[in-house]
Amino acid sequence: MHIKDIQLAVDAWIGQWKEGYWSPLSNLARLTEEVGELARAINHLHGDKTKKDAELHGNIAEELGDILFVVVAIANSLNIDLEETFANTLEKYDVRDKERFEPVESDQ
To answer: Average pLDDT in the 19-29 region?
Structure first.
């Protein structure tokens, strides 16, 4: 699935509800909640903080999916093309970090 397809799928899902898109500020709060859930899942699985016996085991993939959905909803509500935006971001990293990291050596 391409980013454009993801944006269309989120728009179709949200478009079926009378309420439509939440405000960007409400979605930012929702994104913060989802990032917290991801942090908790990663901490329980890979960090020093073990989960309580009664606590549900977090699913990192599900939390990332929730985060992606909310990020796309924010972009859609603000008419931002994420494919174009992400291409610009990669270009920025290529220029800014060109000599920042050691490249992987080729086996050729």
So the answer is: 97
